[in-house]
């Protein structure tokens, strides 16, 4: 099996997946939740068993204003939650206003229960957003340093760290793109759990990458005189069974949770599921391939020998 | 050596299973568990508080600790079990009230700064009136230099009181139907003080040594207090020099009682009486005893979760988890045969050990936390997959079985170690992130995953290895490679590059 030889095909496939996501991101598909922006989120269940349409809810709440400031409710966003619930998001409001909303919905649509209320101050939301970006950056740097340290005895050890980060950026882009597309289509919002899923995928993706790198580390000692490209491909093929099997076991459990688990964590699990698949893909097909591209300094040929750089030199 | 480890493993296994099984309902499919359930499972309230002081002002860690202690005492008085109050430096406190569902009440109780002031006034102030005093925050010093509009600043250089001359309880009686946290208005006596007056604070609750519920002369509940030496002195001075004036007792800038100073009070004892119910008197005594909040706090995030969805989600998640686990176990058994079966045993041990550790820490279980646990099962299996794949390679390369097993373990160890550390790095960052913002869901997930990763390194390597040795010692498998999931033909893999 020659995986490295087809590396540009695999890079291309990655781009094919990432580019629509980037377009969705550019269209503003990634909607930060109140975890990051501040505001109030109410999860409301209707005892009738059937949630009214979002527009009906909007009309019902038309003349409610915030008790303390007398402002109108702004940017009311309504999403259905299962058959009998809605999630309602507005700017940050006080308890009296929450009570007023619940009372109004109760009058209009029969019995309602407030299942969850989350009230986030704008300042803390902004800080969470900053720290979230910081957390992802910190994870990337920490992992790059660790991989560099773990492979410090190899020539060009820092490349391993950077290649690991590259595959990690790949996975983050895939997830951001997916979230943005789903944001456009289904109105999904990126919340603290989305961040958690992204971070977890980062950890797992690097996990897979390290397994391949570890094999390269071993094979370089064993096959001192083999060309780098051959050693890398050999290492990928040797670890392929393991990579696929591990990914399968993780995907089994996640798939079971998507299919049979509750609605509350479904968003989280789907992001994890796609992320794990992306992480396995980038570890097998991209991370080590970058080492080869770097070793051969192939970018020097990207423009002079356009379209034909993938031919193996080994 | 190997045998010793085997026995140690068995003992640990036994302990793990015992600890997990002692309580009646364990997590697996039990509605009730001894494992602490997060707010998303049992409902409740989470409040994130921040010091309400200018951003550039440093807040001493101790004062946040004290504030957390104060909140904890108040919350416990509410009767919420398993409440969690945690300081998140530099300026936050996270309060979790599982099973509690009264946002208004909880916010009041927590935000109440509990600042008790004794305020000098020439006229009676109606109870339940909010007044301004010259004592700004409980942490800052009283601004004794600020002149109040009506009264002359209080002088402290009056003759030493005889601190030992205990006159017994001095009852500061209020007019009937008047005091406590739940106040009714009383007829306003003339003359009334000018509105907008800034009153002078003589002393604060900091000078109070203790407070407890007592009974007044009419056998009504009252709050008796004992002053510190300094407090007793200030009290004696004031009551000596201002006989005939009033002394307003003010809690969080609201007057709770305004007795007349009928005679000098020298003993350092006092009593606040009025028409308290026993519960109100108790609440006030708690507020006074545990003192004022050393820093003013504001609510920056508040989350209330109803209990309706949680249990259903928990049940569904557990079922989903069980299905996922079964699929993994089956896969391992079919693909890796004998070692797979042993890995499944290690997996069961892994699950039990992790649950034991979750119980011991204790980890608060949330829905994402359960996902983290199930995900870490994948990780636990991964270590075994790595080892077994390596074993198969060595077998194909023509090594004898036992040698293949040993090489498999020793070579795979490096990969396992390095790759798990990367997951631990991200977990550590998530735990940090989660604690800063009281995002217990994020934190719960990360802790669960981290514990799972650590335990899996132990079970997947030590346990599987010893089980495998145990079996190999007794049965000769040298001619039965199919038991290890490989066919007897030897495909060459060294030619894999093209």
CATH level-4 homologous superfamily of the largest domain in chain A: Multidrug efflux transporter AcrB transmembrane domain
- Into which percentage range does the β-strand content of chain B fall? 15-25%
pLDDT averaged residue by residue of chain B: 71
Number of domains of chain A: 2
Which of globular, elongated, flat, extended, rod-shaped describes the shape of chain B? rod-shaped
Distance between the termini of chain B: 45 Å
Main β-sheet, spatial strand arrangement of chain B: 5-7-4-10-11
CATH class of the largest domain in chain A: Mainly Alpha
Uncertain segments of chain A are: none
Secondary structure: number of strands of chain B: 13
- β-strand amount of chain A: 5-15%
The topology string of helices and strands of chain B comes to HHEHEEHEEEEEEHEEEHEHHHH
Termini separation of chain A: 14 Å
How many H/I helical runs of chain B? 10
The name of the CATH architecture of the largest domain in chain B is Up-down Bundle
Describe the structure.
The complex is a heterodimer of chains A (314) and B (498). Chain A is α+β, with helices and mostly antiparallel strands and 314 residues long. Chain A is 63% helix and 10% strand. Chain A contains nine helices and six strands, in the order H-E-H-E-H-E-E-H-E-H-H-E-H-H-H. In chain A, the strands form two sheets. In chain A, strands 3-4-2-5 form a four-stranded antiparallel beta sheet. A two-stranded parallel ribbon of chain A has the order 1-6. In chain A, helix 5 runs parallel beside helix 7. Chain A is elongated and about 80 Å long. The two termini of chain A are 14 Å apart. With 498 residues, chain B is of the alpha+beta class. Chain B is rod-shaped and about 105 Å long. In chain B, strand 2 and strand 3 form a beta hairpin. Chain B is 46% helix and 15% strand. The interface between A and B is large, with 79 and 77 residues.
